[in-house]
């Protein structure tokens, strides 16, 4: 097996020419675009809302060392427990400790990209603990043995016919079952699992410093069931998800819903502030929040690029990206795909292995345009490319090629030394295999700028 970059190029080639994949994605993203256009039209001043969100997240990242302890203190006052995890191994070990202490055999999960990041399902399976996804899209890709295709809609790459076929083969539903019938079947299968599960595991969209709470947004109600029925609730959250105040949800909830699905608000929005009190009837007996670093402080240390941590995981940049729409989410080989994944993954998982993602972009700027917190995504891609060069992570061919290019571009004599025909031959020879396999290569003018200038001057004199 080749490197991650080599696999990326192979998978991208295959997906880009998969007509059925293109049809499904174009259809699903087309529905998303229509919904979001309608949703954004209901916001009076979208640019001002984006600026507010950007400033709040800037404030958080500049003062993360104050907001996280504030959250921890307030959450623990309500009976919750906070665990700090430096990396995926620590987070998984802490979760396993809790599960072993209560002799848990089954876990129910709601949708969480952080649990995908730490490969929690595989870890629990290796430790003989059943872990079941309760979000319908996550449940479908789990049945298929796949990873989520998209940050918000994990099964975006599947048509309703694909899902009907899966349920027919696994559960005996009609081969032509409607989406409504499939949803009812999934509900029937999952409901008993909430009662059987010993522990519920979720992520969180936001962690709120001033109240010591976590906020979860969803459309199916599965997160509410996951956090209510099991006796223990574990929420695992990236440290960047903190916001200063409960009042900030007034901005972030609508912006997340509108940019994520086109809704004013998602159907269910929950604020959880600790385990069940003695006078309460619902909720877990114990509640833990695991605050995960896993490379985030590496990104925080990069002053020019730390705004990548402002992301609220709405998925808007994925749906806008022409590269993502052609090569699909699985090609990126990382939980966070698309433009946002391309800028944060090299810092979370290693620049050496994932620097190629920063080149998987047309730099059209559409991702930056749609971002609800105004992350300058396409600029971050360029900064990652710069860092890869500074860290000497590029091949000698690339280094040599760009040195020659730079030398030639800075010298008028060298520019004029080769004729247009020679330059065109060089372009075809050097760049056709890497850049020109599926496109026409540009043609250089037969006459250099100097020649054209001299001719123009001569004509003016005549």
Could you walk me through the main structural features you see in this protein, from its secondary elements to its overall organization?
By secondary structure, the protein is α/β, with parallel strands linked by helices. It is 54% helix and 10% strand. Among the domains are: 43-294, Rossmann fold (3-Layer(aba) Sandwich); 396-461, no CATH class. The protein has 23 helices and 10 strands. The strands form 2 sheets. It has a 6-stranded parallel beta sheet with strand order 1-10-7-4-2-3, sandwiched between helices. Strands 8-5-6-9 form a 4-stranded mixed beta sheet, with helices on both faces. Helix 2 (19-40) packs antiparallel against helix 12 and helix 16 runs parallel beside helix 19. The model has no long low-confidence stretch (mean pLDDT 93).
CATH topology of one domain: Rossmann fold
CATH H level, superfamily name of one domain? NagB/RpiA/CoA transferase-like
E-strand count: 10
Radius of gyration: 25 Å
Question: Major sheet: size, sense and barrel closure?
Answer: 6 strands, parallel
Q: Can you count the helices?
A: 23
């Amino acid at each position: 097996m080749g490197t991650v970059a080599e696999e990326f190029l192979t998978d991208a080639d295959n997906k880009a020419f998969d007509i059925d994949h293109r049809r499904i994605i174009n259809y699903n993203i087309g529905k998303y675009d229509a919904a979001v256009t309608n949703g954004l039209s209901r916001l009076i001043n979208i640019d001002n809302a984006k600026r507010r969100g950007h400033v709040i997240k800037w404030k958080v990242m500049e003062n993360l060392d104050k907001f996280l302890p504030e959250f921890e203190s307030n959450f623990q006052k309500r009976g919750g427990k906070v665990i700090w995890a430096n990396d995926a191994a620590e987070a998984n070990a802490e979760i396993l400790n809790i599960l072993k202490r209560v002799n848990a055999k089954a876990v129910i999960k709601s949708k969480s990209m952080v649990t995908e990041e730490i490969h929690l399902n595989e870890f629990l399976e290796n430790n003989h603990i059943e872990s079941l996804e309760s979000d319908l899209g996550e449940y479908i890709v789990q049945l298929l043995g796949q990873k989520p295709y998209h940050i918000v809609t994990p099964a975006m790459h599947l048509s309703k016919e694909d899902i009907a076929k899966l349920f027919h083969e696994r559960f005996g539903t009609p081969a032509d079952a409607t989406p409504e019938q499939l949803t009812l079947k999934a509900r029937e299968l999952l409901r008993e699992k909430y009662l059987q599960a010993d522990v519920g595991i979720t992520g969180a969209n936001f962690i709120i410093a001033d109240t010591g709470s976590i906020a979860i947004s969803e459309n199916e109600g599965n997160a509410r069931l996951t956090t209510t029925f099991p006796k223990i609730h574990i929420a695992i959250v990236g440290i960047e998800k903190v916001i200063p105040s409960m009042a900030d949800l007034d901005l972030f909830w609508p912006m997340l819903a509108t940019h994520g699905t086109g809704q004013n608000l998602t159907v269910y929005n929950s604020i959880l502030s600790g385990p069940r009190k003695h006078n309460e009837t619902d909720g877990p007996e114990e509640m833990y929040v695991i605050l995960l670093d896993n490379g985030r402080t590496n990104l925080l240390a990069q002053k020019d690029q730390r705004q990548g941590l402002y992301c609220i995981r709405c998925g808007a940049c994925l749906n806008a990206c022409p590269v993502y729409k052609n090569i699909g989410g699985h090609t990126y080989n990382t939980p966070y795909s698309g433009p946002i994944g391309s800028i944060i993954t090299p810092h979370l998982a290693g620049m050496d292995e994932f620097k190629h993602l920063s080149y998987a972009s047309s730099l059209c700027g559409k991702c930056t345009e749609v971002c609800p917190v105004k992350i300058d995504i396409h600029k971050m891609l360029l900064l990652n490319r710069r860092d890869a060069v500074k860290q000497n992570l590029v091949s000698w061919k690339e280094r040599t090629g760009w040195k020659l290019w730079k030398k030639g571009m800075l010298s008028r004599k060298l520019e004029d030394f080769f004729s247009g025909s020679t330059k065109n031959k060089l372009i075809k020879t050097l760049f056709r295999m890497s850049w020109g396999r599926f496109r026409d290569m540009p043609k250089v003018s037969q006459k250099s700028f100097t020649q054209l200038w001299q001719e123009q001057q001569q004509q003016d004199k005549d």
